[in-house]
Design a protein that fits this description.
By secondary structure, the chain is α/β, with parallel strands linked by helices. It folds into 3 domains: 59 residues, no CATH class; 90 residues, no CATH class; 63 residues, no CATH class. It contains 8 helices and 10 strands. The strands form 4 sheets. Strands 5-6-7-8 form a 4-stranded parallel β-sheet, with helices on one face. A two-stranded parallel ribbon has the order 1-2. Helix 3 packs parallel to helix 4.
């Protein structure tokens, strides 16, 4: 198996590749690992590989040109190119994934878009370059892909929410009684978990809403609901509220 690693820091990898199972696999000839410095495909005197986000915003992002050119050249070095290119979310404004999609097409590779969130097809940019397959969560998203993005229905496949697959094999890290003691709840009573939403600019103060919600729960006519424990999980960016 040939594995090509595209990175800005190839000097970081020899230590990992020379240890444990990876080293044994390499020594046995089971894998052939090649490191590629993306800067080798950068343009200009200073070989710049990053730039400010298109449309503004904090931080820096990788420029698409060196990444795309690196991928295209490396694809030709193996016995055969990779079979499939999976993209997500693709619908973000200014995403360099569009260039990756076009490059994959030019190389004759199959492409698929894994829809990353429940609202990506209804609140983001239009899909103008349509991959071979659009993998969606449910029939609602399939309808959005067909009606909003004009994707042919035979290219849309309902698979479920792929990004949640990671949770199926997870197990609780502690027993219920231990957890309740840790967070200050009575283990003999049911409890309600409220998971706060993420913080967007100019959104309302969610802490104030949660306080009103707790008051409504505590005044419920249903004794089980009225006396249930309440656990609030604030979004990390809302802790200041």
């Amino acid at each position: 198996m040939r594995i090509d690693v595209l990175t800005l820091f190839p000097e970081m990898f020899p230590g990992y590749l020379g240890q444990s199972l990876l080293k044994r696999a390499i020594d046995a000839g089971l894998v052939d690992i090649h490191l590629h410095d993306i800067r080798d495909w950068a343009r200009g005197k200073h070989q710049q590989v990053d730039d400010r986000p298109f449309g503004g915003g904090p931080g820096m992002v990788l420029r698409p040109e060196p990444v795309v050119e690196c991928v295209e050249e490396v694809q030709q070095r193996g016995d055969q190119p990779g079979h499939v290119v999976l993209l997500t979310p693709l619908v973000n404004l200014g995403s360099s994934q569009l260039e990756v999609l076009r490059s994959a097409r030019a190389l004759g590779l199959k492409t698929a878009l894994c829809v990353g969130s429940w609202d990506h097809l209804s609140s983001k940019a239009l899909i103008r370059d349509i991959p071979d397959r659009i993998l969606v969560w449910n029939e609602t998203q399939k309808a959005e892909a067909v009606t909003l993005h004009r994707v042919p229905a035979d290219r849309v496949v309902v698979t479920g929410a792929q990004c949640y697959d990671q949770w199926f094999n997870r197990r609780p890290s502690r027993a219920r009684d231990e957890f309740c003691e840790y967070v200050g709840l009575d283990p003999a009573r049911p409890f309600i978990l409220y998971v706060c939403s993420s913080l967007f600019k100019n959104t309302a103060n969610e802490a104030a809403f949660v306080e009103r919600w707790i008051q409504q729960v505590r005044s419920s006519a249903d004794p089980m609901l009225r006396e249930a424990g309440i656990l609030i999980r604030p979004h990390p960016r809302r802790r200041g509220q």
